[in-house]
Amino acid sequence: MTANKYPEAQKMILFVTRAPFSEEEKARLEEMLTANGMTDESTDAVHQALLNLPKEAFKDDWQRAKFMMDFGNVLKQWQMTLGSKKFRHNK
Q1: Which of 22, 35, 47, 59 lies in disulfide reach of 63, CB 3.0 to 4.6 Å?
Q2: C-alpha distances in angstroms, 10 versus 36, 58, 78, 83?
Q3: Which long-range contacts (C-beta less than 8 Å, at least 24 apart) are formed by 51-58?
Q4: Rounded Cα gap, residues 20 and 34, in angstroms
Q5: Number of other residues whose CB lies within 10 A of the CB of residue 13
């Protein structure tokens, strides 16, 4: 259902499932993204959850940096999609 209604949210849900969150945190974030799609509140919640993870949750600093970059890429794609919808595409 989410894939049809919120395609950007599906990418964020895949990111959440790969990240080393606790099972409860994963369920909470997935529920929020499924219900609301990508919003500023949901992306802030995922970002805060990612920042609050202890260093021990990651294999090393490189893995932590990779998850931060992956989150940034998904966020930028969503922002670009929102921005492109504001332009008129006339010939």
Answers
A1: 59
A2: 11, 23, 11, 19
A3: 53/19, 53/20, 53/21, 57/20, 58/20
A4: 19
A5: 21
Instruction: For residue range 13-49, list pLDDT tens digits in order.
Output: 999 999 999 999 999 999 999 988 899 999 999 999 9
Do the beta carbons of residue 53 and residue 21 sit within 8 Å? yes
Measured CA to CA, the distance from residue 36 to residue 6 in angstroms comes to 9
**For residue 60, which amino acid is it?**
D
Q: Structure pTM?
A: 0.83
Distances from the Cα of 57 to the Cαs of 10, 34, 47, in angstroms?
A: 24, 25, 15
Residue carrying structure tokens 């609301």: 36
Give 13-16's long-range contacts (Cβ < 8 A, gap of 24+): 15/46, 15/70, 15/71, 15/74, 16/46
